[in-house]
Amino acid sequence: GAVVSQHPSWVICKSGTSVKIECRSLDFQATTMFWYRQFPKQSLMLMATSNEGSKATYEQGVEKDKFLINHASLTLSTLTVTSAHPEDSSFYICSAEENTEAFFGQGTRLTVV
Amino acid sequence: GENVEQHPSTLSVQEGDSAVIKCTYSDSASNYFPWYKQELGKRPQLIIDIRSNVGEKKDQRIAVTLNKTAKHFSLHITETQPEDSAVYFCAASYTNAGKSTFGDGTTLTVKP
Fold first, then answer.
1. Size of interface A-B (CB pairs under 8 A)
2. pLDDT at B73 over 80
3. Cis peptide before B82 (omega within 30 of 0)
């Protein structure tokens, strides 16, 4: 199957700093990628749809100025958590679709201290 | 928007028994229903999926059934093994498999 790679796998940052997470489709092109957030023992919640060459589409309740998404190429989408706070600590996962099947990155564990 | 409900939240079975997890969805436009297995700290892995033009699909010990009229679908695992222990998520989507609404998950424990 297709491979989606996410980097970093985990990151610890101080409150008030920004963190960038990368999501790459390694063996296919993805005009659209999706970003999810998963709190411990909870489900995956869609945050936004990343569109190559245009603005991301955010789900209701997700602050677009806090979670900046850039999809500058057909194989790379980035999520930047700006001015991170402890409540932003979570597992962030991206996905992309290839041949009508979704493939997920390995996730990024963000801890804000 | 779509709303997916999943039951039970936890399920414990003896090795060799069957396990059944049920989900309901609200949006009749949803046409793709995947099931994912997620181990702690790992990415979700697709184990089986079904599309709205099919009522049942089977892959070895795993099967999924879909009732479009009632808007519910179920995962059936037969001859369970300890390595089946994980969290299972159902999901529903329309047009984009990557853009799904997930159920709350079921923690399956298979006791040896």
1. 51
2. yes
3. no
Residue A14 is encoded by which pair of tokens? 């101080």
Core vs surface per residue B84-109: b (16+ CB within 10 A) or e: bbbbbbbbbbbebbbbbbbbbbbebe
Burial A33-68 (b: 16+ CB within 10 A, else e): bbbbbbeeeebbbbbbbbebeeebebeeebeeeebb
Note the pLDDT tens digit of each residue in A10-58.
Answer: 999 999 999 999 999 999 999 999 999 999 999 999 999 999 989 999 9
Residue A45: per-residue pLDDT: 96
Tell me which of B99, B102, B106 to substitute to probe the interface with A (most A C-beta atoms closer than 10 Å).
B99
Contact criterion met (CB < 8 Å) for A43 and B98: no
Give the residue on A whose Cα is nearest the Cα of B91: A44
Confidence of residue A64 (pLDDT cuts 50, 70, 90): very high
Residue with tokens 């599309």: B51
Confirm if B80 and B21 have CB atoms less than 8 A apart: no
| Omega cis (within 30) before B112 | no
